[in-house]
């Protein structure tokens, strides 16, 4: 079985590394540990096995939907890693493409970056609140972020950057709320205006049914003087069975940041994830008072909230990347918490029946981020990656996905209780 997996893995590795915009020959990076590019399963794998069985049912029988959520901080808000995984999944299984999923109009506010696969523009002045703030006076949910405007007329335009009909949308769910009174936000598509067919004021939801489109739409509303409208996110859906890969990230977020979002559980029910890929932890570990036990406790609290939505949800934990702390202008010191944080992720996987994708080990461990920077795979801040680096990581994550999927497929019933 291992030989078949190795061959399958090699073929997909070759394909995916060449599928990037620029081929990166990993054998020229001596600090790189390709052998670590695997999902390390815990002893209890029932949820993950059940997830892959459902995944197979969807892709082979076109029966039902799979919702995958990548939750994190700035690595996820940038969207490059997430979108590379999304594209690899949907190109590998082209008959199982569902909707684009959750999006948020980050860049209606200056200096707030948007995921790469859609462009946002706006009319009117907007302000922003994030879950990293000590206090916030706007309700926050699963997105961990909100934008709001008090302008009498405000408009947000979302333009999808893909033009190959990969995703289509005929249903939009808006999570939003006016401070007072009844405000009816409208969707504009090809100069035609659509009002919500359903409004739920208890959950701040507006549901729209629109003609199928693949490119762009606008959201707009009118307010009385002194009122304010807040947007917490949008879901782009269709009626197709298949895979939807959602990504949610907030720059600077820690695990505790999401725990502060009072509507997190409520909004998460819209996604109802079958699998959550956890990518939070770099900002936690940057603290001089970083406490591994507190970090683990907070993660378990967040997992408890997620499992209250779907008790059968499976988890994959992405370890922190190696990174440096800025100690003075132009001076950096390696964050020595890297190995301790990794151990926490392995404990979390054991407690949740999940798996670990050890990004730290794949990179080369402590001080490897400097080497990635030298290869133009990481930025000068020694925390974030370049687009080239994120694309490489996304491809490697998918290679590990393919190997794990094949491993589960090859298990017989007597082996399903344990994956080595």
Contiguous helical run count: 12
What does the overall shape look like? Answer: globular
Q: Unreliable stretches, pLDDT < 50, 5 or more residues?
A: 1-21
Please bin the fraction of helical residues: 25-40%
N→C terminal distance: 12 Å
| Binned strand content | 25-35%
Give Rg in angstroms. 21 Å
Instruction: Give the overall pLDDT as a whole number.
Output: 90
Quick description:
The chain is an alpha+beta fold. It contains twelve helices and 20 strands.
What would you say this structure looks like, in words?
The chain starts with a helix and ends in a 10-residue tail after the last helix. The relative contact order is 0.20. The longest helix has 24 residues, at 387-410. The protein is globular. With 420 residues, it is α+β, with helices and mostly antiparallel strands. It has twelve helices and 20 strands. Helix content is 32%, strand content 27%. Strands 3, 5, 6, 8, 11, 12 and 14 form a seven-stranded antiparallel sheet that branches.
Based on the model shown, name its key terms.
alpha+beta; 7-stranded antiparallel beta sheet; 420 residues; disordered N terminus; 6-stranded mixed beta sheet; 27% strand
Task: Present the secondary structure layout.
Blueprint: H1 2-18, E1 39-41, H2 46-61, E2 65-72, H3 74-77, H4 80-92, E3 101-103, E4 118-123, E5 127-130, E6 145-149, E7 153-160, E8 169-178, E9 186-189, E10 192-194, E11 198-200, E12 205-213, E13 216-222, E14 229-237, E15 242-249, H5 255-259, H6 264-271, E16 275-279, H7 282-285, H8 292-309, E17 314-318, E18 324-328, E19 331-334, H9 338-352, E20 355-357, H10 359-363, H11 368-374, H12 387-410
Parallel strand pairs: 2-15, 2-16, 16-17, 17-20
Antiparallel strand pairs: 1-20, 3-14, 4-7, 5-6, 6-14, 7-13, 8-12, 8-14, 9-10, 9-13, 11-12, 18-19
Helix pairs in contact: 1-12, 4-12, 6-8, 8-9
């Amino acid at each position: 079985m291992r030989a078949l997996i190795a061959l399958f893995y090699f073929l997909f590795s070759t394909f995916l590394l060449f599928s990037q915009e620029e081929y990166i020959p990993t054998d020229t990076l001596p600090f790189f540990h390709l052998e670590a590019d695997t999902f390390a399963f815990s002893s209890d794998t029932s949820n993950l096995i059940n997830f892959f069985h459902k995944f197979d049912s969807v892709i082979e029988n076109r029966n039902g939907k799979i919702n995958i959520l990548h939750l994190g901080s700035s690595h996820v808000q940038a969207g490059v890693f997430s979108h590379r995984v999304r594209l690899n999944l949907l190109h590998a299984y082209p008959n199982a493409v569902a909707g684009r999923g959750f999006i948020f109009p980050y860049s209606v506010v200056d200096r707030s970056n948007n995921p790469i696969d859609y462009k946002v523009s706006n009319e009117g002045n907007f302000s922003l609140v994030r879950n990293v703030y000590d206090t916030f006076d706007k309700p926050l949910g699963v997105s961990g972020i909100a934008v709001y405007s008090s302008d009498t007329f405000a408009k947000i335009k979302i333009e999808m950057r893909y033009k190959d009909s990969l995703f289509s949308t005929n249903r939009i769910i808006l999570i939003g709320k006016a401070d007072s009174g009844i405000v009816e936000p409208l969707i504009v598509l090809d100069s035609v205006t659509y009002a919500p067919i359903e409004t739920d004021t208890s959950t701040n939801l507006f549901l729209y049914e629109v003609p199928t489109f693949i490119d762009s739409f606008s959201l707009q509303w009118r307010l009385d003087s002194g009122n304010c409208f807040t947007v917490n996110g949008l879901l782009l859906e269709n009626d197709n069975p298949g895979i939807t890969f959602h990504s949610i990230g907030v720059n600077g977020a820690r695990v505790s940041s999401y725990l502060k979002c009072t509507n997190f559980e409520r909004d998460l029910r819209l996604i109802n994830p079958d699998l959550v890929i956890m990518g939070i932890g770099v900002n936690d570990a940057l603290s001089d008072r970083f406490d591994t036990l507190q970090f683990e406790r907070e993660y378990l609290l967040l997992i408890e909230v997620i499992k209250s939505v779907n008790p059968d949800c499976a988890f994959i934990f992405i370890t922190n990347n190696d990174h440096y702390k800025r100690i003075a202008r132009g001076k950096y010191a390696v964050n020595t918490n890297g190995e301790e944080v990794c151990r926490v992720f392995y404990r979390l996987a054991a407690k949740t029946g999940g798996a670990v994708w050890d990004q730290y080990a794949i990179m080369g461990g402590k001080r490897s981020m400097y080497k990635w920077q030298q290869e133009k795979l990481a930025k000068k801040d020694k925390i974030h990656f370049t687009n080239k680096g994120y694309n490489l990581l996304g491809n490697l994550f998918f290679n590990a996905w393919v190997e794990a999927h094949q491993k589960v497929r090859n298990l017989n019933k007597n082996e399903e209780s344990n994956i080595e």
